[in-house]
Amino acid sequence: MAPKKNEGSTKRIMNKGAWTAEEDRKLAEYIEIHGAKRWKTVASIAGLNRCGKSCRLRWLNYLRPNIKRGNISDDEEDLILRLHKLLGNRWSLIAGRLPGRTDNEIKNYWNSHLSKKINHKEKTLQNSRAQETATPSQKDSGTEGDEEEGGGKESVNNSDVNFDVNEFFDFSAEGSYGLEWVNKFLELDEDTMNYSEKVSNIM
DNA sequence: AACGAAGTCAACCGCTAATTT
DNA sequence: GAAATTAGCGGTTGACTTCGT
C-alpha cells in the first residue's frame, strides 16, 4: 500500500492512506497522555497531518490496547454468524460482543468469508430441499431462507421474532466483556430458530 | 514466468446521532 | 431551543496479495 501523501502543496492538505510507524507512535503517545477524545485537536496537537476521523479510526482499529488481530476462531465465527442473523449488519454491536475485535474487522471478515459461506450453504440447502419436496409448496417464498442474502439494512426486520435489540443488549449494564450473556443468547437463539421453523410451517 | 482475476483488508466517505455551546 | 461541533456507524474504495491459467 503506497501512502497517498499530498506533499509539496502550499495549502494544508491532510495525509491520506496508510499510516506510518511514526504517525502511529505520535498518536499513541498523545492519547496515552491526553486520552482518546476531541479527535480534531488530537490530530493537530499531536503533530499529525491527519483528519480527526482518520486518527479515531486508527486508534480504535489498531492502536487501542487489547486489540486482537486475525485468526478468528471457530467459536468467534459461530458467534458472528448467530449475531448477524439476529442483528443484521450492526457491526459495532456484533463487535462489542467479541472482546478485542473491531467492527471493521468483523465487517471485512463477514464480507470476505462468511457471506460466501452462507451463500454456499444456502444453495446446497435449497438444492436438497428442492429434491426432497416433490410436491409444490404453498409457502410464500418471501419468508423462505433463514439466512439473508447479501446482507441488508432490513435484516433485523426480517427476523421472525420481534423484540427490542437495544433493550436486549443493554450494554450500559455490563461493565466487562463477560461471556455469560452468550450462553443466554444462544439459548434464546435456539428458541427463535424453532419459532422460525414453526412460523414457516404455518405459512 | 507472466498476466489477469479474484480475494483481502486498511482506510476513506457520507451520513446520522449525540453532545456542547 | 437552535446551531455548531464531535463521535460513531455502515458502505464503499482501492492498493496489495494470492491464485489460476
From TrEMBL:
Domain HTH myb-type residue range list: 11-63, 64-118
Keyword list, A-Z: Activator, DNA-binding, Nucleus, Repeat, Transcription, Transcription regulation
Keyword Protein biosynthesis belongs to the record: no
Biased segments, Polar residues type: 125-138
Region of interest: Disordered: 122-159
Keyword NADP applies: no
Domain spans labelled Myb-like: 11-63, 64-114
Locations listed in the record: Nucleus
A GO BP entry: cell differentiation
InterPro entries per UniProt: Homeodomain-like_sf (IPR009057), Myb_dom (IPR017930), Myb_TF_plants (IPR015495), SANT/Myb (IPR001005)
One Pfam family it belongs to: Myb_DNA-binding
Broad class of where this protein is predominantly found: nucleus
GO molecular function, one term: transcription cis-regulatory region binding
GO cellular component, one term: nucleus
UniProt cross-references to PANTHER family, sorted A to Z: MYB TRANSCRIPTION FACTOR, TRANSCRIPTION FACTOR MYB51-LIKE ISOFORM X1
Name assigned to this protein: Myb-related protein 123
Source organism (scientific name): Prunus armeniaca (Apricot)
